[in-house]
Task: structure prediction
Amino acid sequence: MPVFTIVMGAAPHMKLCESGREFLAAGPHMAFDSHDSAYAYVLAHTENEPLKGLRATIIEVLSLENDPT
Result:
């Protein structure tokens, strides 16, 4: 099953952390079961930190286990 996450557009190695409070290069990140659910999250939180003023990009997590960490 695919897993999607939100990354910082200018720095795609920085993923939105599980709590949704900041972008981190390592550690557990926020995982979504579909591109649509990740997009809905971006739309709902686009005016809130840390997404405010950033270009968010939704990517599929490509790992052998699709582990969101």
Q: What stands out?
A: The chain is about 15% helix and 25% strand. The chain has a mean pLDDT of 91. The CA atoms of residues 4 and 37 lie 9 Å apart. Helices lie at 35-45.
